[in-house]
Amino acid sequence: MNISNAIVVGGGIGGLSVAAAMARHGIAVTLLERAPVLGEVGAGLQVSPNGLAVLRALGLEAGLRRKEAVQGTAVVLRDHATGAQVARLPLDRLPVNQRYFFVHRADLVDLLAGAARRGNVTFEMGAQVASIRPGAIPQVQMTDGSTRRAELVVAADGIHSVGRPVLNGPDAAAFSGQVAWRAIVANRFDHPPEAQVHMGTGRHLVSYPLRGGALVNLVAVQEQAGWAEEGWFHKDDPAHVQAAFSEFGGIAGAMLADVDMVTLWGLHLHPVAAQWQRQGVALLGDAAHPTLPFLAQGANMALEDAWVLAEQAAKGYGDWLAGYQQRRQARVIKVIAAAQKNAARYHLPPGAKRSLAHFGLRLGSKLAPRRMIGAFDWLYGFDVTAQQP
């Protein structure tokens, strides 16, 4: 029997997308978000074709374009010192229905929130969740002492999820040995509509344009021995990232020189949750399976999760909640493993191994560009909206 009502904890990409998707199936949804408003939190996101398939099914692809999302033409790997091209992954050679976009997180949040509101999702802002209790009718306890109940509670509340430890016990996160800075600068560099990865020893810089090309999003990753906290919102001195990447030349050096506000966070490895659901409670996105940002799939996996969970809830036959985890778990494990491998490829030290790897990339990019992009068909060519439940 399908459900008629649900509570979603978390107003990020995952929470908003599952709320909008469930509302399309006629499920009454209340979304609880601890922030007082949905604001400009975070920076840029890459919406790859597999994530776009969900937005398209939600009727939001045209809205993404109206938000001045930039359609990507390539992922370009570059030498950190000179900026010389090492390889080009031609996104413009993907099948015509597989488009790739760069978008400001706040713009995607606004787009999804609009879809949720049109679906009559109820928003409770400034709603602080204290705990979640699975059960025949699961409950959400608020810090003000009140209680919310629904047939389904979705914990889409990120890496510090209230719901994850309820289903799995304490999280065993470990520092990955890498930290990342995020910043946005004005695009005075004529940055093309592509994601550029500037590769150096033990570090790399990713850049891509946002908002019609007016801005450039920067993510600078460095290997580091230790770190105490995890999260996005640790403000840092721009001089620190500029010093760490002082050997980066060309456009990379110029963009870093323009940074005047930056945040820093430690990248942690989390195991994929063993239990995503129990007694009317489900985990979604980073709450179930945080991933390192080296394949740009965090938001896209949350979009895929959202579609599947909403579809399972709407179908409602058999053990539909267990079916959600069964349909998603193997795929996210594969994506997370692929993301972890990318960092090592970007950070090779000088020497024969680096030279040989870069030579192979150059040769493949020149002689077999279709084969290079075809290697990602398992990721980009996957359309969760076409899956049979």
Describe this structure in words.
- By secondary structure, this protein is α+β, with helices and mostly antiparallel strands.
- The protein has helices at residues 13-24, 49-57, 61-66, 105-118, 163-168, 238-244, 250-257, 298-315, 320-346, 352-367, 369-374, 377-380, and strands spanning 5-9, 28-33, 44-47, 70-71, 74-79, 85-89, 101-104, 122-125, 129-133, 139-142, 147-149, 152-155, 174-186, 194-200, 203-210, 215-223, 234-236, 262-269, 277-278, 281-283.
- The strands form four sheets. It has an eight-stranded mixed beta sheet. Strands 8-2-1-12-20-19 form a six-stranded mixed beta sheet. Strands 3-7-4 form a three-stranded antiparallel beta sheet.
- Strand 9 (129-133) and strand 10 form a beta hairpin.
- Helix 1 packs parallel to helix 4 (105-118), helix 2 (49-57) runs parallel beside helix 8 and helix 8 (298-315) runs antiparallel to helix 9 (320-346).
- The longest helix has 27 residues, at 320-346.
- It is globular and about 60 Å long.
- The protein starts with a strand and ends in a 9-residue tail after the last helix.
- The model has no long low-confidence stretch (mean pLDDT 91).
Task: Please specify the SSE layout and strand pairing.
Blueprint lengths: L4 E5 L3 H12 L3 E6 L10 E4 L1 H9 L3 H6 L3 E2 L2 E6 L5 E5 L11 E4 H14 L3 E4 L3 E5 L5 E4 L4 E3 L2 E4 L7 H6 L5 E13 L7 E7 L2 E8 L4 E9 L10 E3 L1 H7 L5 H8 L4 E8 L7 E2 L2 E3 L14 H18 L4 H27 L5 H16 L1 H6 L2 H4 L9
Parallel strand pairs: 1-2, 1-12, 2-8, 5-14, 12-20
Antiparallel strand pairs: 3-7, 4-7, 5-6, 9-10, 10-11, 13-16, 13-18, 14-15, 15-16, 17-18, 19-20
